[in-house]
Each structure stands twice: as structure tokens, then as C-alpha cells.
Design a protein that fits this description.
The chain is mainly alpha-helical. It contains 5 helices and no strands. Helix 1 packs across helix 2. The protein starts with a helix and ends in an 8-residue tail after the last helix. The relative contact order is 0.07.
Length: 112
């Protein structure tokens, strides 16, 4: 992925046909040692192609991938006003206190 990103950065910078040297220079600028095989693979796959067309064809393939998240179900019944509310609050407070205590029992602190 980093090789493709470096290739795209070179194209965005105005170089429509980046070379291996261009990609290695971009990767070296952020401290990444480039693998010649991976660089050459990216160049061979993308050379002679318009990057915008490649990205658009990839987006059309992603259109059929589900990306939604599950929606939490609402409770089936709700307690009548005033019923059970104080008990629920006490339980929530107890759970919060227990979770804080369990963090302290780990034997180390964040900044130790």
C-alpha cells in the first residue's frame, strides 16, 4: 500500500510516469526502505494507465461492498415513569466503580 501511495503522490506532484527512483525518494523521505520488487511491481501495473481511471474503476468495485454498521435495537419495553429508575442508576454507578477498581488492580500505572 505504501508503494501505491508513493506512486500516487508522485503523480499528484506532476510526474505522470514516476520511476523507481522517484518512488524510492518519496519513501526514503519518510524513513521507509523501499523493496525493489514491490516498487517494480507497482510501476509495471500502473505504467501507461491514467491514475484517475484506475481509481474510478476501483471505486466502482467498492460500491458493492457493504460498509454499514449494525444498528442497536431499541428496548422492547420501557419502564413506566418513576419505576425502576433509581435502581438502574445505582447499578450503573456500581459498575463504574468496579471498572475503576479493576484498573487499579493491574499492578502498574500508565506512566510507571
Amino acid at each position: 500500500m505504501r508503494y501505491v501511495a508513493a506512486y500516487l503522490l508522485a503523480v499528484l506532484g506532476g510526474n505522470n510516469n514516476p520511476t523507481a527512483k522517484n518512488i524510492k525518494k518519496i519513501l526514503d523521505s519518510v524513513g521507509i526502505d523501499a523493496d525493489d520488487e514491490c516498487v517494480n511491481k507497482v510501476i509495471s501495473e500502473l505504467s501507461g494507465k491514467d491514475v484517475d481511471d484506475v481509481v474510478n474503476s476501483g471505486l466502482s468495485k467498492l460500491a458493492c461492498v457493504p460498509a454499514g454498521s449494525a444498528v442497536a435495537a431499541a428496548p422492547a419495553t420501557s419502564p413506566a415513569a418513576g419505576e425502576g429508575a433509581p435502581a438502574e442508576e445505582k447499578k450503573e454507578e456500581e459498575k463504574k466503580e468496579e471498572s475503576e477498581e479493576s484498573d487499579e488492580d493491574m499492578g502498574f500505572g500508565l506512566f510507571d
